[in-house]
Each structure stands twice: as C-alpha cells, then as structure tokens.
Amino acid sequence: MITKGIQITIFVRDQEKAKTFYTEKLGFVVCDEEEFAPGWNYLTVAPQRENEMKLELVQAETREEKQLIGKQAAVTVLKAFFNESFTIPNPVEASSDGTSLLPYSGTSLTIGGELNKLATNIAHGRDTAGVHWRFDGVEGLKLGERVAIEIFRNYQETYNEKFEGFSLTRFDGTKITI
Q: What keywords are assigned to this protein (predicted)?
C-alpha cells in the first residue's frame, strides 16, 4: 500500500459529482480545493488528510480527455491506496424486494475483493450494453492494470526520498511489489 509521495490525475465527467462520490461513498477527504480560473478548479482527495498520496480529480474538457474517463486503471490505483486484505466490517445487502438493507451473512468481504468485483462488473456492464465485446472487457482490465503498474514504477524514479515500495494483488491473484 502506498502511503506517501505521489499524486495521480484522474479525468472525470463532472468534478463536483466525483468529489461527492469519493468523499461520501469512499470516505476520502478533500485535501486541496482552489479555483485558479473561472471553470478551472484544482481538487485533490485522499483516504485521509495526512496521507501524501492524493488523487487529483480533473474535469475532462477536450475530446481526448473525455475518452480517458473510465479507462484509467482506477481499481489498480485504488489498491495502492488501501490495505487490500482489510475486512469490511458489518456489510449489508439488499432485501429480496429491494426496499431495505439486511446484514450480509456470506463469507468475509475484503477491500481487494470488492475492488476486483467493481472492475469486473463495470467491464461486463459495458459488454452487456454493447459497448465492447467480452474479450475487450477482459483485456481492458489487464491493460489498465499494466498501465497503472507502469505509472507507479515510473513515479518511483522521481522520489528524492528512499522509497521502500508497496505491494498489491493483480487481477490474476499474484502479488507484486513496486
């Protein structure tokens, strides 16, 4: 898990909605928020304020930036933020009629397992919607993971401090250290 020394830019469709998602759904905190020019806001979030690892949420403006939304290896990046083996306390699930939440009684849920499910569900959702072939979704997960790993490896070369590295689990279950 990365604990300091890096900022990763993620292009988003709506910066305010992304901020709400990261803070209210994932429990991140806003680290920096400043308007540099009309329509150009600098916004960073992190799992905790003292964490030097930040995500910069950038409003996608150009056609090229908009094409990057959702294709930025986000799950692998999130794995670098969190302890993947952390067990989620008191999980809930929807009732059979979908009107209430009930305590989840299945096997333990971990951050890493849930992030993998999230990535897979998004890929399969795009397949089902006819955006991609199933093969594209599977290969897209692998490609995004490779991109994120290379970004982290390249960043480590820029540190002035001694970098001890961190580990994460790939989609195929192998652990790697960067």
A: Dioxygenase, Metal-binding, Oxidoreductase
